Amino acid sequence: MTHTKFILPFDCITEADHGRVGGKCASLGDMTQAGVAVPPGYAVTTDAYEAMLNETGLRAEIEAQLARLNFDDVADQERAAQAIQIRFRSHPLPPAVEAAIRSEYARLGDEMPVAVRSSATAEDLPDASFAGQQDTYLWVTGADAVVEKVRDCWASLFTARAIAYRRRNNLGQIEVLMSVAVQKMVNARAAGVAMTLDPLNGDRTRIVIDASYGLGELVVSGVVTPDNYSVEKVLMEIVDRKISDKHLELLPDPAARTTVEREIEGPRRTAQCLTDVEILAVAQLAKGLERIKGCPQDVEWAIDADLPEGENLLALQARPETVWSQKPVEKPKMSYATGMMGIVGALNNPIGSGG
Amino acid sequence: MDAQTPLFPSAYDVKAPEGAEGWEELYPYYLTFQPNLREKEDAKFWFCDSQHWPNPFKPFDAMTVEYAVRCLGQYNTRHYLVPPANGVDYRIHNGYCYMSPIAVAPEKIEDRIPQFLERAGHYFQNWDSLLDNWHKKVKANIAEMEALSFDKLPEVVPLEWITEGRGVDPHLDLMANYDAAIQLLYKTWQYHFEFLNLGYAAYLDFFGFMKGQFPTIPDQAIAKMVQGVDSDLFRPDDELKKLARLAIELGVTGALKSGTVEEALAAVAQEAKGQLWLDAWEAAQDPWFNFTSGNGFYSTDKYWIEHLDIPMGYLRDYIIRAEAGETIERPTEKLLAERDRITGEYEAMMDEEARAVFRDKLGLARTVFPYVENHNFYIEHWSMCVFWKKMHALSRLLMEEGFWPTEDGMFYLTRQEVRDALFDYGNAWATGGDWIGPSHWPQEIERRRGIIDALSTQPPQPALNNPPEVITEPFTIMLWGITSESIQNWVGGGSVEDGLSGMAASPGAVEGLARVVRSPDQLGEIQEGEILVTPVTAPSWAPVFGKIKATVTDIGGMMSHAAIVCREYGLPAVTGTGNGSSLIKTGQRIRVDGNTGKVTLLD
């Protein structure tokens, strides 16, 4: 084990660590330890972030910028944000933090492409999609690049939108901490999202899957219209499929050490991008996660082109579904008719009669 | 008639095919549409029950419609007073039967509820003990039928009858036995419905509750929670599987593999442990070979016990598969575990209050539903097997006495005419003259055979006249799976461009070559891996389900025999497509999606 207080591999994250690894890493840790196939990786903890603030003089610089910021002036917010970003980049990481990131990266493999993503801490979660909390860098290769992207993730806490958001919601500015996930990159042949209820109506007997070619980012960001499959959760049968025209895919560009968007051509565009077996495997993965977590889930997944069939489906992220799960359950208008009166009721209003 | 064009034709506009003129006289007067009641009859909606009677029936066989549908009604109308529903009116038209349920007037429904609660309630509360008694009654009824004999009248009355001073002759017994057979059949059908409607009602209650909880829940998921895994209906097939295993264990498979049934059994007898196997073969037959590959409603149905080549054929298939290392046994433990899993997962998605209700309704549905599955063996298979066996013996007797030239002659007579023919026989026997039958029946039977054959060339209408705006009649929905939606499918049926739709009766999706089977005699044509396409299946086709990939039927709902067996065998099924067996041709490539109820024609 090389982990220090600055680094926690996913398979070492315990519940006690959740506060300092953020929601995304906590979830990856839970999944890894529950035996779910998750690409390996590690969390750069909030302790690393705090060390960055405290040991480099950055904290004072940020506080100075914020102190003279007129929050009502959008232009001034933008100026302060730029200044803070520059301050972040002007400091190398504290040596112990950088060493920890590098040595853990080396354990993933030599020149292993990774995804570097911000992992917000729990206090910031009421609206997880606020700016700066979703920063993701794909296909990052080499320890230098990883260190740089970790720092970029931290800096993204201080975009103008993020500053404004915290102000609006009465959250502290410098008090908000951030963890970063460094995770082995998936060479996704297809990827997408699965929800363990129907987002259109909250139907919990359904698992609804969005899927397209390549990495899942284009599905999440809405750039492509994905295929949409509906699976009956108990029988695990595909009950609906809408096949879309998928015009783009996001693929790795190993030479450029980044990802590239590519136009999809020919019949592949309008073909079903997952086989039926794969659809059911994704549904099974999502169903398993719902069971582990005890509530409806929103799961990001990918099928890795480099892994053998049967082992190539990976969970990238799972978070609780928030829209329908928070709605109170609708009570039936009348109480249930039971016993003989139930039978009388069924005879008088048989199902299928529209009554 | 009003100006509005009805969705389906009037019976009076559906003419008989050429050569079938005069068909009306083959059936009792009260079974055909009555021109002087046309206005009343045209105002009602009639749907064709080709689920139970897919082919035009001979005059004698019409009795099965009469007794079955009449006895269905008696329990609703006179025994339990089912609040909204009386029985089902029925007519024969061009050889097919059409049904029209009789609703209770809305203002009378309320009054029937207390009586229903008391009467049906008694059955639900005492289900197990009453059902126990039912088994005794049905077995006694079968034993009585089994005891009936139809013997040739002797040259002279036996001397003992003279010396004992009996003062009667054997013709009296012949007549009495015929009348007894008909009465016992009548009783059989009364018993058939004693529990059935109540069983379906409890199922319907559970079904409606589940649809209320989970509006998109597949019907088949609800069925799977209730369906039993050790139904007596599967016993005949299970017996063959056991016999296949035993044959392997005792080393008699070589002897069994070829030749006629007699040759194979003789070869087994030569084997060292052959007798052990033969004993098991004999023991399995009573009662489990009282099993038909038809549905019990036709005199042409073949029963295993009278056609041992049928079970022998299936047995040979099982031996081949078992020797190839396949598991031929039904995975009953797995099925039970699956049933528990499905039940548990839906229950987990309910709130506390609903869960208690769920357990209640599921409990009752599971108590009563085994009857819905099991009765079929005791009535349609066992009882009807014995009945038809006796009637075949009687028809053969009269054939031998010259009344008709073929063994099936009697079935072209109505049940009243058979009585007349029997009297004719005993009459001339007494006078010492010639019986008239042999000069009357052969040409009349030929004429009638021509009519029935002509009727068979024309498929039935799915329905007659206008359907009600919404189908609310519970038995139409429960027993025939007919809903407003399925009627729409019939109307839209016939378009093949985007395939066919029916009920998603058993999950899974496959592609393959179709094999259209219109009668059980064609079952032997089915090749490994084909998709069975048929008007309707009987549960006794189970042995071919090991060979096929999927099933498509014209008729039947979620709880139809085809659906039950397909779920049991894990095969995709789409039921109630209306006309799949006419549109799909043998050898055509089709895709069957048992999850969505769609059948796609691929070429």
From TrEMBL, chain A:
Keywords of this entry: ATP-binding, Kinase, Magnesium, Metal-binding, Nucleotide-binding, Pyruvate, Transferase
Domain Pyruvate phosphate dikinase AMP/ATP-binding: 20-335
Known catalytic reactions: pyruvate + ATP + H2O = phosphoenolpyruvate + AMP + phosphate + 2 H(+)
Signal peptide: none
Cofactor: Mg(2+)
Protein family according to the UniProt entry: Belongs to the PEP-utilizing enzyme family.
Protein name in the entry: Phosphoenolpyruvate synthase
Gene Ontology MF term list: ATP binding; metal ion binding; pyruvate, water dikinase activity
Organism of origin: Celeribacter persicus
Pathway the protein contributes to: Carbohydrate biosynthesis; gluconeogenesis
Reported function: Catalyzes the phosphorylation of pyruvate to phosphoenolpyruvate.
UniProtKB/TrEMBL annotation, chain B:
Record key words, sorted: Kinase, Pyruvate, Transferase
Keyword Transferase: yes
Stored Gene3D superfamilies: Phosphohistidine domain
TM segment ranges: none
UniProt-listed InterPro entries: PEP-util_enz_mobile_dom, PEP_Utilizing_Enz, Phosphohistidine_dom_sf
Record-annotated PEP-utilising enzyme mobile domain positions: 526-597
Molecular function GO terms recorded: kinase activity
Keyword set includes Kinase: yes
Protein name: Pyruvate,water dikinase
Organism of derivation: Celeribacter persicus
Phylogenetic classification of the source organism: Bacteria, Pseudomonadati, Pseudomonadota, Alphaproteobacteria, Rhodobacterales
